[in-house]
Design brief:
Helices cover 23% and strands 24% of the residues. It is built from five helices and nine strands, in the order E-E-E-H-E-H-E-E-E-H-E-H-E-H. It starts with a strand and ends in a 6-residue tail after the last helix. The relative contact order is 0.16. The model has no long low-confidence stretch (mean pLDDT 96).
């Protein structure tokens, strides 16, 4: 596997926001999103065996596999199985362009999947069939820049009727008021959340 960084922090996004979590950031991505805040993960990273990555995770109970795009990595499913067999909870953060059915299905695996909106430049790269593969325990995330993005998100939700919770976050993760006001005004059934790690530590890596 190619690993960019491994670190212990608070989950900054989604419905597990604020929970202490050990992060494994894997290298490489198949998209080039305009709003990407982890471009440094597009590099080669450090070569590690699945066993070495697992050993790094051993002291922790909640693991987040992120990127980059973790589904591109060989050994990805094997690592998840090892983590589950050791009793851990696993969150997989994926960009929505690759088939999530390769992720082992288990009550302790939460898929956190993006749907890229038009402002990202990658909205046409999505595998929208993935939405039907998500289970109620999973989450579907939309990063919203403007009204065009919001209408796109609402159109995706209306067309595909996701079974899981939908999460809206503003670009940059911190200026929530305009998006929150729009969600309330239009009575949209979505959870509006910040990126907590940026509020606490700013934009530096390793948090």
């Amino acid at each position: 596997m190619r690993v960019v960084e491994m670190f212990y922090s608070l989950q900054g996004e989604g419905k597990q926001i604020g929970l202490p979590t050990f992060f494994v950031r894997l290298a490489g991505c198949n998209l080039n999103c305009r709003w990407c805040d982890t471009r440094y993960a597009a590099g080669e990273g450090e070569a590690m065996s699945v066993q070495e990555v697992f050993q790094g995770c051993e002291p922790y109970g909640r693991i987040c596999l992120t990127g980059g795009e973790p589904l591109m990595q060989e050994g990805f499913s094997e690592l998840i199985v090892m983590l589950l067999e050791s009793g851990k909870e696993v969150v997989v953060e994926t960009n929505g362009s690759l088939d999530v059915s390769v992720i082992p299905s288990h009550p302790r695996v939460l898929i956190s999947m993006d749907i890229k909106c038009p402002s990202s430049g990658e909205s046409k790269s999505m595998d929208t069939g993935n939405i039907g593969r998500l289970q109620p325990k999973d989450q579907l995330k939309f990063v919203i820049f403007d009204g065009v993005d919001l209408e796109h998100a609402l159109g995706v939700i209306e067309e595909h009727s996701p079974r899981c919770e939908c999460i809206f976050s503003p670009v940059g993760g911190m200026d929530l008021e305009p998006l929150a006001e729009e969600v309330l005004h239009r009575r949209i059934e979505a959870r509006v959340l910040p990126q907590l790690h940026k509020i606490i530590w700013g934009r530096r890596p390793g948090v």
